[in-house]
Amino acid sequence: MRSSIFFITTYFSDYTIVPAKSKSQVIRALEDRGFHFEESAEAYINPAARHSRGRSSTSSIDPLSPSTPPPATLSELQARTFALLKQREVVPRVDADIRLLHCAGRWDDNNGLPGDQTGLQVGLTKCLLYQPRFLSLTLTGSEAASLLLDRRLMSNFEPDNILLGNKELVPIMLDLEALPLQATGIVCGVVGKLVGGNADDILTRAIEMLYLSTARAGIVMVEEKDLDHAMKALQMKDDSKDKP
Q1: What is the rounded CA–CA span in Å between residue 11 and residue 146?
Q2: Cα 180 vs. chain centroid, distance in angstroms?
Q3: Which residue in 42, 83, 197, 205 has a CA-CA distance of 20 to 30 Å to 118?
Q4: Could you write out the DSSP letters of every residue in 111-147?
């Protein structure tokens, strides 16, 4: 049995969002790969693995119909995924005008609670009034707010110590609206191509990256220095640098 997933990388954690009916299947897959649930962290942890942002990604498997036999290798999975994307005319796209900052709200170390919530809320309200081209906000009960936002929006957050971190990333957009919601293998096929390549692709080296699933798109985020290599790995030329 295979399951579609949504994947969200935040400033603090990685979240895999699955259909409720697939919960036990996904938990079993995690445990088979050495993960165990740690009560103090309220998360699945793999103590044997060195965690690196953007290198933790998995999807179950086949991007084709549920009746299709699952691929036997990562190379086969990638081939099926990219064949499906090509069939649905899904191509990676980079907007030359958008650069993102990956940041988070600060915690008050004295009481273990989020810091300047008023300043954060005012800043977010200003961002929404600006009608941003890109803004992603993740709120959970156990972590401070995590944000991915257009770098031009940072001036809305004052004082400048409201947010933690300011890593700049380039978003690579995949418009998945033409794909059925239950399609599987997209995250693993695309991300696997970037973080590990395959045996037949000697040009591909591991790229540190983030991935964000939305209702209509998959968004790969890499540093500027890795953009050309990422686009090459996805078999696309970055045309944004040719723009004035």
Answers
A1: 6
A2: 19
A3: 42
A4: TTEES-HHHHHHHHHHHHHT--S-EEEE--SSS--EE
What angle is formed at CA 181 by the lines to CA 178 and CA 186, rounded to 5 degrees?
80
The rounded distance, in Å, linking the Cα atoms of 159 and 170 is 25
Beta bridge partners of 212: 8, 219
pLDDT at 244: 43
**Residues 90-117: pLDDT tens digits?**
889 999 899 999 999 987 656 666 667 8
Task: Give the bridge partners for 219, in sequence order.
Answer: 173, 212
What is the identity of the amino acid at 201?
D
- Which long-range contacts link 47-52 to residues 24+ away (Cβ below 8 Å)? 52/208
Whole-prediction pTM: 0.74
Question: CA 24, CA 36: separation in Å to the nearest integer?
Answer: 14
Show the tokens assigned to 120: 């954060």
